[in-house]
Specification:
about 80 residues; mainly alpha; about 75% helix
Length: about 80
């Protein structure tokens, strides 16, 4: 699949956004999480890529299922108190 510069810019912007999940990126661009990682690796400086990976690894919001599970857990905790 050929990706032009404007698509690359869109993918990078979406990947940096905390509230845009990989599932949303896939719906909008057709790229899986691993493909997004490859795009980021190829188009960011090494230090920028490492910073992005560190940021993404610590965010449950980048993965819809993990995010929804955390929301449910927190609402259950609030209900118990």
């Amino acid at each position: 699949m050929e990706i032009d510069d404007s698509q690359i810019n869109q993918i990078i912007r979406l990947a940096w956004e905390d509230r845009t999940t990989f599932e949303d990126i896939e719906k909008r661009t057709g790229l899986t999480e691993s493909e997004v990682i490859k795009v980021m690796r190829r188009n960011l400086k090494p230090s920028g890529f490492r910073r992005w990976r560190k940021r993404v690894n610590g965010r449950i919001t980048k993965h819809r299922k993990r995010f929804e599970k955390e929301i449910l857990r927190k609402s259950d905790d609030d209900f118990r108190h």
